[in-house]
Amino acid sequence: MFSLLAILLIFSLIVVYFVNKCSTLTAQEALANYLNAVIGGRTEAAYNFLSAADKAKESLHDYKNANSLGSGLIAQVIGGKISFAVETLDVTGDMATATVAMTSPDFPLMIQDVFQSLPPAGIPEQTLETLTFVCRHISHFLDKYQGEGLPMRTAKEAFSLLREGKSWKIKR
């Protein structure tokens, strides 16, 4: 009986430790969790990392509508190519600023490439011709970017955080 109580006590202490650890993330951990949630298309998780002031301006429903990545398949393909590294993090009291290097496919270059390849006449009107046109164009770019690889770019982005109670939150 005593050993069972000892095991339950140790288990309880471990649970309390991990619950407390998860609620007291550092600014860098909170930022990384927020970015991973956004990149992964987990809008509700990302919303939970926003400051109270930002949540007061935008409901979860509105945030989801504005920030949903849409199709899970597309989000996984594109999101899987995005990475980030927190380069600097300056904490002053309850405020923090971070510079993050975000590496992602060069979307503007890719979209420009797609539009430049469109014929002057545009997309055909007839259903079967449109099907052929769209499938060929999508296949062409899939083949191109699989063979040459996705063009990538790295950009630095700034983030602000603030401490609310024991938690760090993103200030947009």
Notes on the protein architecture:
The protein has 172 residues and is of the alpha+beta class. The chain has 2 domains: 2-101 and 155-171, Nuclear Transport Factor 2, Chain: A, CATH 3.10.450.50; 107-149. Helix content is 56%, strand content 23%. Strands 1-2-3-4 form a 4-stranded antiparallel β-sheet. A hairpin with a 2-residue loop joins β3 (152-164) and β4 (167-171). The longest helix is centred in the first third of the chain and has 22 residues, at 2-23. It is elongated and about 70 Å long. It starts with a helix and ends with a strand.
Summarize the structure.
The chain is of the alpha+beta class and 172 residues long.
Keywords:
4-stranded antiparallel β-sheet; 172 residues; Nuclear Transport Factor 2, Chain: A; alpha+beta; 2 domains; single chain
Separation of the first and last Cα atoms: 54 Å
Whole-number average pLDDT?
86
Give the proportion of residues in helices.
Answer: 55-70%
CATH architecture of the largest domain: Roll
Strand order of the largest sheet: 1-2-3-4
Taking the sheet with the most strands, its summary is: 4 strands, antiparallel
User: Which fold name is given in CATH as the topology of the largest domain?
Assistant: Nuclear Transport Factor 2, Chain: A
Low-confidence stretches: 15-22
Strand content: 15-25%
Q: Write down the Rg.
A: 23 Å
By secondary-structure content and strand pairing, the structural class works out as: alpha+beta
Coarse shape: elongated
**What's the β-strand tally?**
4
The count of helical stretches stands at 8
Please provide the ordered H/E string of secondary-structure elements: HHHHHHEEHHEE
Q: How many independent structural domains?
A: 2
Output the CATH class name of the largest domain.
Alpha Beta
